[in-house]
Structures are given as C-alpha cells and as structure tokens.
Amino acid sequence: MGENFKEFCGGEFWQQDDVQDLMFITGIVIFSLQLLSLLLTFFVDSVSSSTYTQPEKPPCPETRCSFPSFLTFFWVTRLILTGFKRDLREDDLWQLSRPERSDTLVPTFFKLWEKEVDRCKSRSSSSGGWLENALKGASSKNTGSKEVLTESTPLFLPPDNKTVLTMNNATRNSTTAGKIVNMMSVDVQQIMERMDGIFFGLTTPVQVIVAVVMLYQVTGPCLWESACLVFQVPLNAMLARMQKGYREKNLHFKDGRVKLFGEILNAVKVIKLYAWEQSFRNKIWDIRKKELDVMLKMVNVNAIMGLVWDMAPFLVTLTTFVAFVVSDRTNQMTAADAFVSLAYFNILRSPLNTFATMIVTTIQSFVSVERINQFLVGEDLDSDCVSHDSASGTDCTGGSIAYVPQQAWIQNATVRDNVQFGKPYIRTKYTSVIKHCQLERDLELLPAGDMTEIGEKGINLSGGQKQRVSLARAMYSENDVYLLDDPLSAVDSHVGKALFKNVIGPEGLLKDKTRILVTHGVHWLPMVDEIIVMQDGKISERGSYDYLVSNNGPFAQSLKTFLTEVADDPVEDPEMAAIEKNMLEQLDSVETSKGSSHDDLSSSFSSGRFLLLNYFSAIFLVAFNWIYWRRMVYAAQEMHSKLANRLLRYPMNFFDTTPIGRILNRVSRDVDTVDSTLPVHVKGVLVHSSTVLVTIIVIMSVSPITGAVLFPVILVYYFCQKFFVPTSRQLKRIESVTRTPLYVLLFETLTGASSVRAYGATDRFREQAKNIVDHNQVFFFATHASVRWLQWNLDFLSSLVIFSAGLFEIISSSSSEVDAGNAGLSVSYALQADWIIPSQRPPTGWPQQGEVCFQDYKTRYREGLDLVLKGIGFTIKPGEKVGVVGRTGAGKTSLTLSLFRLIEAVGGSIIIDGVDISSIGLHDLRSHLTILPQEPVLFSGSLRFNLDPFDEYPDVQLWTALERAHLRGALDDISEGLDFDCGEEGSNLSVGQRQLVCLARALLRKTTILVLDEATAAVDMETDTLIQTTIRTAFNNCTVITIAHRLNTIMDYDRILVMDAGEVREFDAPKALLSDKHSIFYSMAKDAGII
C-alpha cells in the first residue's frame, strides 16, 4: 500500500499538463470563492431590536447596510432622494442606536473624568489631558471619524448641564450665562470639529513617508536639502502662541456679547418701554468692536501662517531641484523627471496643508478645552446642603425642601406641568392645591384651563398668577421644609390674606410643616411662631412676636413708626385693620412701661523662471490672504450689525412667539460660524474652484481627447451637487431647530437652579437634557453622513478624471510621439483637480399737557387671537391721577402695552396732546413716556449705566435721583459710587433695591406722563411709604396712570377706571363709584374690606 502511494506521488502519474490544469482549476475555485465572499458582503446581517428603544421609528440604515454600502455611504442615498423630492420632516429620519446615546457615552466620559481628577489632585487645577482620555474612550469603540464626530456633542453637553445644576454660588458668579452658552455652542463645536480632523490627520505621516520615498527614487540624496523646512518650526511655534492668545481674547469678548444679548432678550419689554434700543445697540457695538479688533490681529497672523505653509511645498521643490542640478553637472532634470517629481510634491502638499490647518484648529480647540475644563473643575454644592443667593456660606437643611422664590420661576410648559413639576398627577390633591392657591378663577379665564401652555418666563401670566403657580408647585410637592421668599408681595391684599390663612398660616394646609417666610407684611407677624430680624446682612433680633415687642428693641421701634404713619390710611380689610390696631396698642403699652432704647530645470533660465514665478506667487499669497481675511472680518461685522439692528426693532409679538434659545443660537453659534468657519470654507471654494478651472484648461490643452470623459464628469458633478444641496440644507435647518430646546432648557436651568435643586429635580432635568441632545444627534449625524456621501462620490469622479487623463496619454503615445513633459503636466494637474419718521415727528416739548384719549380703541396680541381691548373709549385730563383696576384678565396690562405701542391697534386710536401716537415713530413715543414696571429689571454694568444709559445727566442729578428714591444711604459705604457693578441682571442688589433704582430712573426722565404697574410690591413697608410719598410730590403736576392691585393705594386718586373683559365698565371719582352700591368698584372695595 505504501509503495503504491509513493509510486502514485512520485511516478509519472502527475504530468506537467496535469499540474497546470490542476492549478487552473484551483485558481478558478479560489477566485469563485473570493467572488462569492465579495458578493456576500452585499448582504446584511440581522440586527437585534434590543439595540433600539423607539420601535415607532426605523433603525439607523447604517446598522443594517451591507459592507460596500457602509464604505461608500450608499445607505444615505434614500434619505437624500427623499429630501430632493420633498421637504424633509423629523419623522423621515431614524432612531439613534444605543452606542451613540447619551446614556452610553456620558458614563464613559465621567469614568475618564474621575480618573483625570484623581491624577491631577496634587495640582492646583487639572490639565487638558481629559480630552485625550475622552478621545481614547470614544475611539476604543469606533474607528471611523464620523462615529466619534457625532459622539462628541452628547459627550460634552450633559456634563455642562450637570455642572449648571450643581455648581455653587462662587462658581456661578464667576461664570456668566453668555460664557456658558458659548461653551455649549462655540467651544463644543470647536472640539467636535477637531475630533473629526484627528482621524484625517492620522493619514498625514503615511502620505509624507510615501511621497518622500518616491521622491528619493527620482532625485536621490538631493531631497534632503529640503530639510530647511525645520527652520520654520520656531516661527510656527511663535505664531501658534500668538494665535492662542488672540483666540482666548476673542472668546472672552464673545462671552460678553452673548451675555448682553441674553439680558436684552430677558428685558426686551423694558428696553422698548424706555426707548433704550439705541443705547443697547451701542453697547453691543462696543463689545463687538473689541471682538473685531482681535479678529483683525488674527488676520495678520493668519496671513503670515498662510504664507509660510503655502510656500513650504515651493521651498521643498526649489531646494530639491536646485540641489539636483548644482550638485553634479551630469545631472539632467528632464521634463518627465520634473513632472514626476512635481506629482510627488503635490502628494506631499496635501499633508502639509492638512498639518497647517490642524495647527490652527488645534490651537482653537485647546483654548476651548481649557475653558470647558475650567468650568467643569468649578466647585459644586455640598450634596447635603441647599445654597442660596449669598456671597458665601451654605445653609444645611434636613429633610426635603420646597422653595418659592421672590421672583417666580415658571417653565415653558402647561400650568399643570408647572404645578406637578415631575410629580404624578393625583386629581384630588391637585384640585385641592389649585383651590387653596386661589387659582380656580384664573384657570377658568385661560383658553385651555390648566392645560394652557405658558410661554417662556411666564409671559402670558400676570405677576400674581406666576407667584401663585409657584406656591402651588411647592404645596403639590409635599415636602418637609418650605422656604417662602416673600410670595405674597405680588398678589392682591384679599388674595394674600386667603393664601396666608389657607396655606401658610397656623391653620393652613402647611401647618404641620416647617415654614420659613420672608415678608414685608407686618400684619402677619403676630401669627408666626418665631421672628428673625435681619439688618445689614446679620441677625439683629430673634424671638417670638410678644418677646420682641416686650423687649422694645429696634424691631419694636421700627414697627411702631410704621404703624403710626399708616394709621390714618384706609386698610382694605377690617380684620387686618384690627390686627394693626392691636399691634400698635401693644407697642404703646410697652413704651409706656419701659421707654425706648444698624515645471525642465537643467538650464539656469528655467530655474530662474521657476524661482521668479514662485516669487510672484508669494507676493500674491500675502496680498490675497491679507485682503481676503480682512474683507471677511468686515463682512462678518456687517452681518452682525444687521442682525442686532433687526433684532432690536422687532415688535414684541416676535419675542413672545420666538424661543430665546433660538435667538441665542443665532447670536452665538451662527455668528461664530460666520466669524470663523465660513471664511475657511469660502476660501476653500475660491482656491479649489481656481484649481479646477486651471486643471481643466491644462488637461484640455495637452490632451483634448480627455474632454470625452471630462465634460460628462463635470455634468455628473453638477447633478450630484444639485441632488445633495436640498437635503443638506433641510437637515441643517432641522438640526438647528432641534438644538434650540437645549438653549431654552439651559436658560430655564440657570434662572431656576435654586428651585430645581430645592425640589430634588436635578436628575430629571439632566435626563431631559440628554433626551434633547439625543434627538438633536439624529439630525446632526444624518447631516454629516450626507456630507460624507457627497465627498465619496466626488472623490470617485476625481479618480475617474485622473485615470482618464493618464489612459488617454498612454493610448496617444502608441500612435504618435507624445512629449513626456506634456503627459506629466496633464496628470500632475489632474491630481489637483420705521424707527424715527422724519416727516412725522411730534412737536418740540411734546407732550406738554399730558392729556390721553382712547377713541374706540381695539387691539389683539397677534393675528388670529381674540381682541383683548374691545373698542374702549375714555379721556384722561392733563395732570389727572387715574387708577386702573379690574380682576385678572380684565385688560389692564394690555392698556399699558397699547399706550407704548408694544401691541398695535386693530381699530381706533390713542391721542396724546392732539397727536395720534400711531403717526409718529416708536422712539419719539416711548422716549416721552415713563413707566415703572412691577418687575424691576437691571442690566450688567455700572449703576450709572442702569440709571442713564445715554449719559445725558451729570452726576449731581444722578445722586439727587438716588436720594429721592431713598437709595443713597445704601450706597454711601460703597467706594465705587455710581460705578458700582450691579451684576448680571442686577444680582448684586436685592429685589427691593432694584425697584428703587427703577424709581430713580423714572425720576431722572421726569416726563409729563407716568405709568405705574404696582411698582412697590417688592419693597419693605417703610420704603413703600417713602416711595408713595415721592411719587405724589415729584410727579404732582404729571398725569399718573396706576395699574393697581391694592385698592388702598389709589383711593385718593382723581378718578378710577374699572375694566372687565377688555371693556371699560366704570370711570369716575372714587367717592362717586363707592356711592353706587351696584358698581363693580363698590363690590371690589367691599371684597377688599375697605367699606
């Protein structure tokens, strides 16, 4: 058997022909198996549905596409075709796979973050190494740049949101809202784009090595003469440091500009009421000018860096060719060798350009990394403490906490959602809370009841309604400790009484809970268990009411002074009157007993021509870079100026219907795109368009037959762009729209962080941020996938042009003599392939008398809504004091807004001193009227700016106004004086002090017509009396229109205007209205306990 096998193997059984046949058959089998293997890659593996959590949407096509489709991005074609046929909708896209969700990425980030924190504990602050770790974490799961690209945004945003919710006051005070918005938009965008570039940069060393090796085969050791490029390193290092410094300054000014825009949007009503648009336009320009000055300095650096890197390939080419010719006289640089070398140098040009771009963008990214890093390492709150708006220190409180801030915080959600605040809906409990918070009648007046959606910052609720919704939220939460920061100041007296009796007081629903009430209402003091008296930020006295009165200290003396001064004023409620009387008697008795007590290079001609050509190229490059970048800065300036002007001139209904987050997205991320990203892309378009044009001319002049392929390819190029652009534009639009809720949530979180923390809703808000980011990432990923689809298809067409150029030159060479230089030239180029109306201004000094006449006036907030004022007509005489009263929804606020034309007339007119206000410019109207709003609004900047933004008044008048507003005493101990920094939104002043600043502002303007909207609700009892006295004396000869919630403040007015359901029901003197027991005013006075 063994011998037979040996004979079979080594004998003559296997002939040479048989071996060849066997090898052929084996080759056919191997090829068939390989072809089958290739064909199998076109089939898709099944994907487990557990990877997705939203069965109502299809999974991402990328996860179910074949391998060739994955490589070529063919799976995006269906989406691009849909966008070409019709407008895309959100439901046309897919769901986000679990590996790309925030729930997967954020924990990974925090693990890496904690490791970095532990590594840097011995340092004063952590370095930027966490970004490297984060990139490693991302790239460990995905090697494609597009994956990490989309993962970067959810990686950064939720941690920022976490920090916003957990940072303490010191961190918050050192970080403005504008800076936080810029970090979430501009800085995150810079880091994300750099992460994408890193993967393209990884191919740079390979391209350089390949190009150098091939060049060495042509030029030999002469190539090393190009090592002169190392001398560029120190220059580039210096330029990089300068670029980094300018970028830091640029982002600093961007923070200030976005912060200012945020303040403007939050207080746009006040700005329009005071006609301060021009002042804030100037303030925006002052910051923008500083930003542009830095950008112009960056232009000079960019021009030098552009010259250095654009000339680098020329220097390498020049030194190599010169060294090749000079080093040995026998060396001949033929046209064929020259163009082969040029082709290789072009290969080398691409990585050098990429490296130059990476230097600039990496510098920008590291600046962004440092900014975000500084923010993330900021101190957080103690998890067992609740931090309040204090300069330092924390209050540690046991048990769950409910917090009602003095300025009610309302979310952009329904009334019910604001009350529930994440708690489950229990009908009986909810109904009870609504009843005890006096919200039943208000909900009846709302178009959809408690399911009515409340606009941003509670725009469609009155101040009292917002405060009661805030209180209802606290009650519904059923917590252990209730922190009530003066919740009764914004409501009517009878509503305040009911709230105290039914909710806060000893017999209210919260009687078994710990309640800390901050109040200016002295009549509640006898009904509380303990009183803490604060003075100059310290506790001056503490004890029960009886103890403090019997002690006859500063508290008792201050209380007696107040009660004595208001003893003759009518009190709206008999019960309150009795309480105040008993309090005064008790104080008198104590004082009685105790008494009283703060291209061929072988010839020198060709070398010289080559050198001269590149010399002029260098001059052109310097001029182009300098002119181009400066013009782009000026273009960005013009666009921003138009944006700011348009924004400040929009009517109020635009701000009522447009989310603040959307506007901030325009002024932050979009402006930065115009400043930084758009110039790079426009330059790329110009450079590449020129290159393509020159390439076509050269190829066609050398090898005209190439046109048989070139022109069809150009047509395909055109149709690819035409096919791609509609989808790309729509995806960018939807991506931007879905990003807006993130900015809205950010601002809600910033303004209501105390409430969110107090109610323990931090995790819920964090989850909400993650959901918004995940939803936005679907469109973000689709946008960049579609761009990759276009890039792949265009690269394929470019390769086809290069192949055709070379192929046709080879075909031509077989039939005729073809110059090698022409062939090389062809292939090497293929490788590159109504504010003020002048005619209708009011008379000088208008208005002089102050007569206001409404004539059949009708208005609505915007088209499609019901009328809010229904043909009202009345006349207010010059110098008359008129109180405007009415229940919630009567139209009192609408009347005020109409007077300042924040809402325009649908019919009728308003005449002031014989001038129809609709016929004059808005600035002329609003600058001649004064309003003291209910909510005091201040801006970042000095006290001087908040009083006099146009610098119209001398310091003496400013101090006089502050003194008459009873605020000078609080400023005497402040060394800055009028230059005192009021802080962001006036945060360095109390709410009461802010109202006094607004009063001083009104005293400075001293116009003939003054409108008051319950201007003293947020001040203490003594200041209230002083303000009322100041108003009566300082505006004695003025026409005063007061929107009153407390009837006792207007009982001495000349006439009372009673409104109901948008109509004037009564208009007469108080006594005349009270004498008619059937009048609405009589019933209101009776309900208030005045009669």
Automatic annotation (TrEMBL):
PROSITE patterns: ABC_TM1F, ABC_TRANSPORTER_1, ABC_TRANSPORTER_2. GO terms for cellular component: vacuolar membrane. It comes from Pomacea canaliculata (Golden apple snail). Its main location: membrane. It is a multi-pass membrane protein. It comes from the Eukaryota. Residues 164-364, 618-833 form the ABC transmembrane type-1 domain. Keywords: ATP-binding, Membrane, Nucleotide-binding, Repeat, Transmembrane, Transmembrane helix, Transport. It is found in: Vacuole membrane. This is Uncharacterized protein. SUPFAM superfamilies: ABC transporter transmembrane region, P-loop containing nucleoside triphosphate hydrolases. Residues 296-561, 852-1086 form the ABC transporter domain. Belongs to the ABC transporter superfamily. ABCC family. Conjugate transporter (TC 3.A.1.208) subfamily. The chain crosses the membrane at residues 22-44, 198-217, 299-326, 610-629, 692-719. The lineage of its organism: Eukaryota, Metazoa, Spiralia, Lophotrochozoa, Mollusca. One of its GO terms (molecular function) is ABC-type transporter activity.
